[in-house]
Amino acid sequence: MSLRIFYDSVKPEIKKRRNLIKFINKVIREEGRIPGDLNFIFTDDNSLLEINKEFLQHNYFTDVITFSENSERILNGEVYMSIDRIRENAEKYKTEIKEEILRVVIHGVLHLCGYDDKSANEKIKMRWLENKYLKMFKVEKYEF
Among 15, 51, 55, 125, which residue has the least CB neighbours within 10 Å? Predict the structure, then answer.
């Protein structure tokens, strides 16, 4: 089992990666899953757009793309996140950049756990879970 955070051409304001990793592990366990080999990669809009085009045949920017190779309860995969989208969303929704980073990380974890957000109901469920885990982060005062 290994959970790693990488920066591809960008570096978000994360000073304590260990705390972010602990939080990710906690979210995974709250979902009844076990962390396996997981990579969380922060990148920029252009890199994520290329991934979106190549693997999903989508020609638009997005904040997160998840690739999973899960086996039963064990989560394995990669979560690619655009720091450009994260910053833009933080500004758009008038929230702190760190909160938006957490929201996108949680969103990626939920995709790894099998949640989808294609329908309106699925989007509502995922947003509810994101808010639940954001509250957990604030209550437990993880600093990252």
Answer: 15
Burial class (CB in 10 A: 0-12, 13-18, 19+), 59: exposed
Alpha-carbon distance of 60 to 34, in angstroms, equals 32
Which tokens in the block code for residue 89?
Answer: 């969303």
CA–CA–CA angle 65, 97, 121 (5° rounding): 50
Between strands 64-68 and 2-7, the pairing is unpaired
Each residue's pLDDT tens digit, 20-55: 999 999 999 999 999 999 999 999 999 999 999 999
Prediction pTM value: 0.92
The secondary element (H helix, E strand) that includes residue 30 is helix 17-30
Contact present, 144 and 24 (Cβ < 8 Å): no
How far is 40 from 129, CA to CA, in rounded Å? 19
In this predicted model, what pLDDT tens digit does every residue of 46-77 receive, in sequence order? 999 999 999 999 999 999 999 999 888 999 99
In DSSP terms, which residues pair with 39 in a beta bridge? Answer: 4, 78
Tokens of residue 36, six digits: 């396996």
